[in-house]
Design goal:
By secondary structure, this protein is α+β, with helices and mostly antiparallel strands. It is built from 27 helices and 24 strands. A 6-stranded mixed beta barrel has the order 4-6-11-8-10-9. Strands 16-17-22-19-21-20 form a 6-stranded mixed β-barrel. A hairpin with a 5-residue loop joins β20 and β21 (about 655-665). The longest helix has about 45 residues, at about 725-765. The protein is elongated, with a radius of gyration of 33 Å. This is FtsX-like permease family protein. Keywords: Cell membrane, Membrane, Transmembrane, Transmembrane helix.
Length: about 850
């Protein structure tokens, strides 16, 4: 059977090349998703400052969620300082190093109160001198720090800043500067410092600088000679778990202490790497599932067209006694040959596509620039298996009808298409359309929150499958609508109308991928525009203060708010802290824990600085163990005012908080609002992001403005902004989240674009014999081209109408989930541009192959078709 299949493929290259291209591209898409998933599970970076440690002890940076993805905590999970003593008593431990890390900014001392800022390409962290043993760092010049106002810099930092031993430097934490004398330089460890710069102080000064002196960033362990890192790590974990059982410490499963060895130490040292992996795993899994469905759908459509174009040949086989099983076996063998070859060849471009996606995510700021992908062969193997199985299933479905009907009926249907669709097909198609509408619009009203958004987005594929099943009916309807326009061209118009009506199934194979591409582009654009427009409106109208104070350093020191309140003319100052927290809830009978943007602020007198559009409850009650939620977060967790919200703060600390308010401006300012002190105490440097300043009923005043300018002159990095400038910065944060989804779906839309061209070209070139027969009975080339031009409008109009129709319900559902309003934000020019592009693409994909098919002599084309 494989010999016959191979002979068929060689003699019908046109159709099988199209299927081959669809399989290659589909395999590449699935491989790319698999590479991203494996990178989220396995990728990492080598440690730098901890490179010399045998074992590192730190907080566990992920939360265990049963039967779901384990999310990463956005801030560092610290460990109690007392843990170091427990670790030091473990057999095999030679030395324990208590590491405290605080992010800083460097200013040269130029005689001014602010100093001259030094722009660095990487963050600067301050540490105690004892942590140099973890590198290890080597003192190459000067001496170690011996007093609170002495520091040692890494040599690379000193070179880039133009500093040397004996100079003075201003190292600030937030907006609080300290002047230090540089007493020495150290060389970085063997791996170098590519992701950070380092400044070292006395251990006592590092403790004083730390926002939590009772906590450690991490504990470094230097093992005895010959100690195995994994064995020593196991002993340390056993010792700490025994201590936990005895004392009850660290009972919170989301924030307990673990050990790190080898390259895993890099996860502890660089939190952005672990966070990036946590971002990639759910994204690639979700995107991969959608991509697999679209790939199988497109491959099925292409193979269906291949089988449809061979219905005369397959009917002849049935007429000469080929059994249904033999027909299925023949098509299955052909599909296996094409599928295996295409899937294997498509795996290699998939690795390249994954690299392009990584670069796009890095450019959008959601992945570090140096994040490396894990090129494991497993994604390629999985892509080959899934693509081949999908193609085999598609081939079986495509051959199902022609294989089971009687030989005489097969010969009859090979000459003319069956006019009516089967009742089962119509029933399933209409049912899927109804299901898609329910998932798009009804579900967001019944199951609000993030589940509604995901359901509305997934409904697009359901609507597309339903439309594909009844697409011949839709083609016939479009033909009837366009027939009056075709009458202007008597011969070509008649032929176009007759062909479109009689061959609706064939044309529907060209319509489906074009409609899918249109719908995906319109729906993604609508979702992006809705998020951006809503966030812009909320951020622009929500800041009602007269001034906003920000900083280009690591943040604003918490004591700055008091200085601003003391200025003449200032009535209200609202400090704002930004972070992320995990909201825990039950999602369809399964525990879920998802990150939400959070802000910490004082709810009192908030009406004069910030308008969150409070819909229930009161922000005045935001004190103690309380929380305010956006309506979307409240709907996601199914809580209301007076209920309890289950939350993990950024550093893993678990809280049960009473909901005191529900507000509307979540996209503009964050979905979770906590008391200022609570959130600030659980961020890395415990600093404010901004101060919202109100001058009272009189509005902005020269007196307040002068006071703020004078304060800025004496405070490093301080900047005074207008509310409009601050709102523009806020809006950029939400655009990043939207672009992430667009990038993830960009590869899929490119695949659909290739499938559109592939299918249209195949459908057109497969009609070479028909064109030749028309020419033999007197139709001119011009009339044939005109006929195909008119038919192309049937395809394009049907595809655009279907695409727009199935894009609108998911767009409405996403708008309901994001804004609570059923009207998505639509940019008419953008929609017109997409429709124009689809129209041009469809026309070129039909007209160019038509011209090519008409170049050969009619009699040769007729016999070539035989």
């Amino acid at each position: 059977m494989f010999d016959i299949a191979w002979s068929t493929i060689k003699n019908r290259k046109g159709g099988f090349i199209a299927a081959f291209i669809a399989v290659i591209c589909g395999s590449a898409v699935i491989t790319a998703c698999g590479v991203l998933l494996m990178s989220g599970l396995l990728s990492g970076v080598a440690p730098e400052r901890y490179a010399g440690a045998t074992v590192m002890v730190g907080g566990k940076q992920t939360k265990d969620v049963k039967e779901n993805f384990d999310p990463h905590f956005p801030d560092r999970v610290t460990v109690p300082a007392s843990t170091a003593e427990q670790v030091s008593r473990v057999d095999g431990v030679e030395k324990v190093v208590r590491d405290r890390t605080v992010e800083m900014n460097l200013h040269k001392d130029n005689g001014s109160a602010r100093g001259e800022p030094v722009r660095l390409d990487q963050p600067l962290y301050g540490h105690g001198w004892s942590s140099t043993a973890l590198g290890p760092f080597e003192l190459t010049e000067g001496s170690r720090p011996s007093s609170a106002r002495e520091t040692v810099l890494d040599a690379g930092l000193a070179r880039s800043a133009g500093l040397k031993v004996g100079d003075t430097a201003r190292l600030s934490i937030g907006t609080t500067p300290h002047v230090y004398r540089i007493v020495g330089l150290v060389d970085a460890p063997a791996n170098g410092l590519d992701r950070q710069s380092a400044a070292f102080f006395t251990d006592a000064q590092a403790t004083a600088l730390s926002p939590r002196p009772d906590r450690l960033t991490a504990i470094g362990v230097l093992g005895e000679d010959g100690a195995d890192a994994d064995d020593l790590a196991g002993k340390i974990e056993d010792a700490l778990s025994g201590a936990d059982a005895a004392t009850g410490a660290h009972a919170d499963p989301g924030a307990h202490i673990v050990t790190y060895t080898g390259d895993g130490i890099g996860d502890l040292e660089f939190l952005d790497v672990g966070a990036s992996r946590g971002f990639l795993v759910p994204l690639s899994a979700s995107f991969g599932g959608t991509a697999l469905g679209v790939v199988i759908f497109v491959v099925s459509s292409t193979l269906g067209l291949v089988v449809h174009q061979r219905r005369r040949e397959l009917a002849m086989l049935r007429a000469i006694a080929a059994t249904p099983r033999q027909v299925h076996k023949l098509i299955g063998s052909e599909v296996l040959l094409v599928g295996v070859a295409g899937a294997v060849l498509g795996a290699a471009p998939g690795f390249l596509a994954a690299g392009l996606l990584r670069d796009a995510f890095a450019h959008a700021g959601v992945l570090p620039q140096d994040f490396e992908l894990s090129f494991n062969p497993l994604p390629a193997v999985a892509a080959v298996l899934l693509t081949v199985l999908g193609a085999r299933l598609a081939g079986f479905i495509a051959a199902f009808r022609i294989a089971r009907i009687q030989p005489v009926e097969a010969l009859s249907e090979s000459e003319a298409e069956q006019e009516e669709l089967g009742s089962t097909r119509k029933t399933v198609g209409v049912s899927l359309l109804l299901l898609g509408l329910v998932a798009s619009i009804v579900a967001p009203l019944v199951i609000p929150g993030q589940v509604a958004i995901a359901g509305a987005g997934g409904a697009l594929v359901v609507l597309m499958v339903g439309s594909a099943l009844i697409s011949p009916i839709l083609v016939q309807a479009a033909t009837r609508m366009l027939t009056p326009l075709f009458k202007r061209s008597r011969v070509s118009g008649f032929l176009a109308s007759a062909n479109s009506s009689a061959n609706a199934r064939r044309l529907s194979s060209a319509v489906v991928p074009l409609a899918l591409g249109t719908a995906m582009a319109l729906m993604q654009l609508s979702m992006l525009n809705t998020v951006e427009a809503t966030a812009q409106e909320q951020a622009a109208t929500g800041v009602v203060s007269d001034y906003v104070i920000t900083s280009d350093t690591t943040g604003l020191s918490t004591g700055l708010a008091g200085k601003v309140r003391a200025l003449d003319g200032v009535e209200t100052v609202t400090p704002v802290t930004r972070s992320q927290v995990l909201l825990n809830y039950i999602e369809i009978d399964k525990p879920a824990s998802n990150p939400f943007s959070a802000q910490g602020l004082d709810g009192r007198d908030l009406e004069s600085t910030l308008d969150l559009d409070v819909r229930e409850g009161s922000m005045d009650k935001l004190t103690g163990d309380t929380v305010a939620l956006s309506w979307m977060a409240a709907d996601t967790a199914r809580v209301d005012v007076g209920d309890t919200a289950d939350i993990n703060l950024g550093d893993g600390v678990h809280k049960k908080l009473k909901v005191v308010a529900v507000y509307g401006n979540g996209l503009g300012f964050g979905d979770i609002t906590l008391p200022h002190r609570m959130l600030t105490e659980h961020t890395a440097n415990q600093q404010d992001t901004a101060l919202l300043v109100s001058a009272g009923s009189g509005g902005a005043s020269p007196q307040v403005e002068a006071g703020l300018e004078k304060l800025a002159e004496h405070t490093p990095g301080l900047a005074v902004q207008s509310p409009q400038e601050f709102s523009a910065v806020q809006q950029g944060q939400f655009a990043q989240q939207s672009w992430t989804n667009l990038i993830a779906n960009g590869l899929l839309m490119l695949y659909v674009l290739i499938a559109v061209v592939n299918t249209l070209v195949m459908a057109t070139t497969g009609r070479s014999r028909e064109f030749a027969m028309l020419r033999l009975i007197g139709t001119s080339k011009r009339q044939t081209r005109r006929m195909m031009f008119l038919e192309s409008w049937v395809v394009i109009v049907t595809a655009v109408l279907i695409g727009v129709a199935i894009a609108i319900p998911p767009a409405v559902g996403c708008a309901l989930g994001l804004t609570g309003q059923p009207i998505p934000h639509i940019q008419p020019l953008a929609w017109i541009g997409i429709i124009a592009f689809v129209t041009l693409l469809g026309w070129l994909s039909i007209s160019l192959p038509t011209r090519s098919a008409l170049r050969s002599r009619p009699i040769e084309a007729v016999y070539a078709g035989e």
